[in-house]
Design goal:
Length: about 575
Amino acid sequence: MNHVESLTKYVGHFVDQLYKSGVRDIVISPGSRSTPLSLTFAEYNQFNIWVDIDERSAGFFATGIAKETKKAVVLVCSSGTAAANYYPAIIEASYSRIPLIVLTADRPHELRDVGAPQAIDQIKIYGNYVKWFHEMAMPEATPNMLQYARNHADRAVHTSLYQVKGPVHLNFPFREPLIPDFNLDGMWGEDVVITHHFKFEKTQVSMPLLADIQQQLQDKKRGIIICGPHDYHDLAAAVLDLADKWQLPVFADPLSSLRHLKGENVVVESYDSLLKSKKVRELVHADFIVRFGAMPVSKPVLQLLQENNIEQYIIDEDVTFRNPSIKSAHYLYGNPADVANQLATLSLSFDREWLLMWQKLNDSARNVLIQEQHILTEGLAVRGIQTVIPDESTLFVGNSMPIRDVDTFWLATDKKVSIQANRGANGIDGIISTALGMASNGKRVTLLIGDISFLHSMNGLLLTKNYPLHLTVVLINNQGGGIFSFLPQAKEGSAHYEMLFGTPQSLAFEKVAALYDFDFNSVDEWPAYLNALEASYQQKGVSLIEVKTNRNENVTWHRTKWQEIEKHTMAILEENRDVR
């Protein structure tokens, strides 16, 4: 069998198996060495094919698709630095547990380390950030090698999905000629009997361990359940059931899927504002904490754990030790929803007055946060989105200040909105591309992003020129890195602050909108902002809404809110001295 026949059948069987194993979306960045893969995916004619000329953007776009679909997404690129540009997205996918299958084309072995063009060392290029790496064999079409190709396609899919999701990497060396022959008979292996090699069962903690937990908690009175970011469809309901059975407050991170459950009296969404005060953190004496999901966005929650010796129970799917408090903890490994349901069966009761106190604290903080103001602030920009965004929508949130403002100002509501963010590595790169990936199914996504993050990932907007993607972008333009205004770097009199941290760029964003043919509105008043949001949800394509704010005024406004919340909180804690 000649080279072209071997290449065609080898790659054809691999691609066919990916489809049979559940893959539906392929994100391709153009290149010559990856021709066998790219052409074969297109020829198969069953996949959703997305082409992104920028590999860094493509990696995050695939991350967004995987977040939305909960399925493994394939990335395809050529050899050389093309593969290196995936790295930021792979790091994010690793920490966020996103299933990606990275297929990098490579030079054959005889062209490595000899100065051939576009030939870099791609072996384990992503290090420990992928769950599995494999250097694929050179294409052959013997029965064993065709089965080998299928086995590794199937293994890649299932390794990316189970037990903890994450990226995998297969490196494909190809010799020229690179063009497959799609006229060959049997190139897809239609008569092959497919064998799936992986089965995954939900896991629970053992009965002896449950008995130990029962004994450890039976004399305790004041507990807190924390639910951080996660992607388990059944975890929110299980956590609510546990909190209801135990009568404990739930600190609900904005990425926990718990903030659209307004009627639940155990949900405390204003914990971040309540705990910003060190005085408050010193006065709330929790006996134990049970945490589901990743660590919450809130820094005050982390400070509460670091400053106090609170017994922690951390529930996770695998042995990963996600515990930045550096305090000791009990780790319970299993499917989080299953473990929550198991814990709910324990015969435990806690001080109901503790829950009632947290309800009072939460209501008090909410009242301060929803007070109307005369200026359009960054916090009120969040409230505006929550007011106007349609039910059953998706909000994607950028890092730095936007996600923190959502944590503070997105209050529990009856409106069901899926809030998403890249909180694995918490970087500002790839935000636009990830949001567009979440819009790949045709629905409109709302993106809340700062000006520096927007500029950092603006290349992702090229996708909107080629695909019908619908996005409402709320761009907070405070002329620089607004989060640094809250940090010690902004200390008055710092000679280098603006140059190193403020970093104003002074670009006209209406020109960006014109470049990509976006609808554009620049607003600095509340009524105009709401009108722009409402208009964006009535149309297709991309709408860019620029919200102009002032960094110094924004800091003052936030701190005034926090001071008022602290005052009311201290009064409630004084009234509940016997409870706390």
